[in-house]
Amino acid sequence: MSDVTTAEFNEEGKYLRKVRSFVLREGRLTKGQAQAMEQQWPIMGLDYTPEAIDLVEVFGREADTVLEIGFGMGASLVEMAKASPELNFIGIEVHKPGVGACLAEAAEAGVTNLRVYHHDAIEVLENSIAEGSLSRVQLFFPDPWHKKRHHKRRIVQAPFAELIRSKLKVGGVFHLATDWENYSEHMLEVMTAAPGYKNQSVTGDVVERPDHRPLTKFEARGHRLGHGVWDLMFERV
């Protein structure tokens, strides 16, 4: 689980920027994480730029690109990249130990189709990702801000849905997952109202966890305890 961003929204859904637009959470790195940052960042790290990156140049090939927002410690992202070598993967995370852990794991797995940002997700999406360039955007277990008065801090709001849509190719998919039922209802409401999307669920609500999203340890434990996880997949039309 990851704090994706510190952007907030006012009641009309406009972004409220803090004076500093976001906080990079440094945290204490383990020796292995620090070493991975030093050795792997030059290979897999993407430094934030205010202009759009050229995906063919970054990955050295033409391929569909999947972007994950807030990958936590990166275990499932690395697993996905390893399982789908034909796809490009980009991960964004503000928490430095998570970035270090992800780089270490990717290096160990011999993954070459993954690049990562240590930066605010909104800023990367707004400026560094070209319009219509992504085939999938993933937002798994974002901070649920479960207190009612904090709901406006939830990242899934109308302007965010619109931002994601602009970055997806037609036919590209925004895949969301949460283990908070109340947040899944909020996500469904926002995404159903968002123009230019079609829900991939035949029942008009959630979908079964697709094969491409690995079951996390945390989630497997939740299943045993009878906790639910809700997946939503919306296609850009």
Automatic annotation (TrEMBL):
- In which pathway does this enzyme or protein participate? tRNA modification; N(7)-methylguanine-tRNA biosynthesis
Keyword list, A-Z: Methyltransferase, S-adenosyl-L-methionine, Transferase, tRNA processing
* Binding locations of substrate: 147, 179, 216-219
Which is one GO molecular function term here? tRNA (guanine(46)-N7)-methyltransferase activity
Query: GO terms for CC?
Result: tRNA methyltransferase complex
The record's listing under InterPro entries reads: SAM-dependent_MTases_sf (IPR029063), tRNA_(Gua-N-7)_MeTrfase_Trmb (IPR003358), tRNA_methyltr_TrmB_bact (IPR055361)
One Pfam family it belongs to: Methyltransf_4
Residue numbers binding S-adenosyl-L-methionine: 68, 93, 120, 143
- List the EC numbers from the record: 2.1.1.33
- Say which enzyme class the record assigns: transferase
Reactions accelerated catalytically: guanosine(46) in tRNA + S-adenosyl-L-methionine = N(7)-methylguanosine(46) in tRNA + S-adenosyl-L-homocysteine
Entry function = Catalyzes the formation of N(7)-methylguanine at position 46 (m7G46) in tRNA.
Q: Which PANTHER family match?
A: 3-DEOXY-D-MANNO-OCTULOSONIC-ACID TRANSFERASE/TRNA GUANINE-N 7 - -METHYLTRANSFERASE, PENTACOTRIPEPTIDE-REPEAT REGION OF PRORP DOMAIN-CONTAINING PROTEIN
The UniProt family comment states:
Belongs to the class I-like SAM-binding methyltransferase superfamily. TrmB family.
Protein name, entry field: tRNA (guanine-N(7)-)-methyltransferase
Organism equals: Shewanella pneumatophori
